[in-house]
């Protein structure tokens, strides 16, 4: 009787030890939603590319799922609410959101933390070459595509045009880039605004149906004190020859597109993803998805970030010597 009891206890102990030794068996990998942007846009390509990168797909503890959205501002709100774990957000919107200074939105989005710099996104204002529009002020009374409502393009257009006193003096058309390019080609718009990496497919499309030009936005920004009021914007030049018929470089300004995370995402997941992507192989893969991503790199990892980093990202960038 005693022997039988001893055998039962021994067997139970062995079974318990085996169970503890393999705790992950049968457990589902954590689902991580990565907010991108409108279909075909650069934000969405970021999310899709990270989702499909081999070492990320092979991760055992988590699964990245790319999800489309209206863009930067929607991503900021959803990442803050935990409806997305990661997203692409402009540095300016992250800065304003944390301070409670977004247009018509005084909430403070403090649960969104920066992970890495991705690329610079310049403002681009497309007009017809014979339009006579050379400054933003020339748009008064004109029909202008201003980006999707809820997008970073729309928000930055409103910010800049309102700063110049033009926002309420144009006929605004909220629409995506491709729709705007089509409407522009059909003479339904006098101009359209983009806030995205160049070359933009929508601008290339517009240049095939009309002789186009780009407006020098840096001149209006510099003369109006825009850079002093919004220090996260920096000057940039859109090179000559990027678009058909635009044979000289055009000065503009840009914001930084950032990879961000909800504060509750584990440090380990953030660190692991950075470790997979910021390698020679990972960066080459991203650059192969879109030339814009050639800006990604260890040296530029925290460029344009003026808000707090996620602890997992802070650990990674410290190890790389950037902090």
Find the count of extended strands (DSSP E, 2+ residues). Answer: 10
What is the succession of H and E elements?
Answer: HEHHEHEHEEHEHEHEHHEEHHH
Instruction: Output the radius of gyration.
Output: 24 Å
Give the overall silhouette: globular
Average pLDDT metric: 91
| Terminal CA distance | 67 Å
**Portion of residues in helices?**
25-40%
Main sheet: strands, sense, barrel: 10 strands, mixed
Q: Tell me the fraction of residues in β-strands, as a range.
A: 15-25%
Overall SS class: alpha/beta
What's the helix and strand layout?
Layout: H1 2-21, E1 30-35, H2 42-52, H3 54-57, E2 62-67, H4 72-81, E3 86-90, H5 91-99, E4 112-128, E5 143-145, H6 152-163, E6 171-173, H7 177-185, E7 191-195, H8 201-209, E8 212-214, H9 217-224, H10 226-229, E9 234-238, E10 250-262, H11 267-277, H12 280-289, H13 311-319
Parallel strand pairs: 1-2, 1-3, 5-6, 5-7
Antiparallel strand pairs: 3-10, 4-7, 4-8, 4-10, 9-10
Helix pairs in contact: 7-8, 11-13
Describe the fold and architecture.
The chain is of the alpha/beta class. Helices cover 39% and strands 20% of the residues. The protein contains 13 helices and ten strands. Strands 1, 2, 3, 4, 5, 6, 7, 8, 9 and 10 form a ten-stranded mixed sheet that branches. Strand 5 (143-145), helix 6 and strand 6 (171-173) form a beta-alpha-beta unit. Helix 7 runs parallel beside helix 8 and helix 11 packs across helix 13. The longest helix has 20 residues, at 2-21. The chain is globular, with a radius of gyration of 24 Å. 46% of the residues are buried.
């Amino acid at each position: 009787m005693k022997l039988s009891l001893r055998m039962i206890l021994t067997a139970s102990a062995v079974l318990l030890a085996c169970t503890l030794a393999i705790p992950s068996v049968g457990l589902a990998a954590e689902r991580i939603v990565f907010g991108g942007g409108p279909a075909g846009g650069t934000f969405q390509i970021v999310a899709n590319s990270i989702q499909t990168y081999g070492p990320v797909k092979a991760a055992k503890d988590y699964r990245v799922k790319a999800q489309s959205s209206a863009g930067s501002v929607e991503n900021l709100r959803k990442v803050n609410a935990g409806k997305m774990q990661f997203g692409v957000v402009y540095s300016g919107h992250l800065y304003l959101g944390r301070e409670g200074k977004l247009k018509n939105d005084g909430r403070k989005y403090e649960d969104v933390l920066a992970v890495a710099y991705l690329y610079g996104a310049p403002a681009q204002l497309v007009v017809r070459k014979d339009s006579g529009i050379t400054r933003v002020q020339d748009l008064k009374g004109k029909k202008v595509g201003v980006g999707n409502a809820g997008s970073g393009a729309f928000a930055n257009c409103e910010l800049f045009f309102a700063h110049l006193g033009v926002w309420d003096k144009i006929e605004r058309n909220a629409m995506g880039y491709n729709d705007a390019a089509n409407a522009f080609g059909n003479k339904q718009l006098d101009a359209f605004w983009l806030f995205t990496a160049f070359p933009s497919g929508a601008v290339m499309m517009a240049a095939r149906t009309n002789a186009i030009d780009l407006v020098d936005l840096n001149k209006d920004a510099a003369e109006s004190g825009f850079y002093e009021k919004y220090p996260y914007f920096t000057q940039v030049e859109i090179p000559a020859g990027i678009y058909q018929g635009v044979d000289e470089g055009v000065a503009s300004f840009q914001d930084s597109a950032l990879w961000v995370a909800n504060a509750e995402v584990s440090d380990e997941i953030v660190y692991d993803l950075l470790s997979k992507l910021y390698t020679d192989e990972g960066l080459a893969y991203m650059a192969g998805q879109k030339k814009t991503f050639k800006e990604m790199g260890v040296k530029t990892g925290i460029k344009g970030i003026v808000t707090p980093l996620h602890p997992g990202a802070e650990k990674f960038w410290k190890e790389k010597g950037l902090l």
